[in-house]
């Protein structure tokens, strides 16, 4: 009887170790998916959201800046184009 209880305890410990390993792998996989999504979002933002596309290659003056909405109005010093 004593031998049987020792075997059951060992089996429980093995099953517990397997479940811990599976849980660790799932958490690591989800964390890697999260990091990949963050990297994609930052890449998209850098491509589309953070660049100021100007109309000409001259110097611009800031006419108006709204930090609440993230808007800015620029005017070219040389040709007067506004962006």
What does this structure look like?
The protein is α+β, with helices and mostly antiparallel strands. The protein is built from 1 helix and 2 strands.
Compact overview of the structure:
By secondary structure, this protein is α+β, with helices and mostly antiparallel strands. Helices cover 57% and strands 16% of the residues. The protein has one helix and two strands, in the order H-E-E.
Task: Give me the secondary-structure topology.
Layout: H1 2-48, E1 60-66, E2 71-76
Antiparallel strand pairs: 1-2
Number of helices: 1
Order of helices and strands: HEE
Provide the helix percentage. Answer: 55-70%
Note the beta-strand portion.
15-25%
Number of beta strands: 2
Distance between the termini: 85 Å
Mean pLDDT: 82
Give the uncertain stretches in residue-range form.
Answer: none
Radius of gyration, Cα only, in angstroms? 30 Å
Sheet having the most strands? 2 strands, antiparallel
Strand pairing plus helix content: what structural class? alpha+beta
Descriptive labels:
2 strands, two-stranded antiparallel sheet, alpha+beta, rod-shaped, 16% strand, 83 residues, single chain, 1 helix
């Amino acid at each position: 009887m004593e031998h049987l209880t020792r075997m059951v305890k060992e089996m429980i410990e093995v099953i517990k170790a397997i479940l811990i390993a599976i849980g660790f792998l799932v958490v690591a996989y989800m964390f890697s998916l999260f990091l990949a999504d963050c990297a994609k979002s930052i890449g998209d933002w850098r491509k589309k959201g953070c660049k100021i596309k100007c109309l000409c290659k001259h110097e611009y003056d800031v006419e108006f800046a709204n930090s609440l909405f993230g808007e800015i109005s620029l005017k070219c010093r040389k040709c007067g184009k506004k962006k």
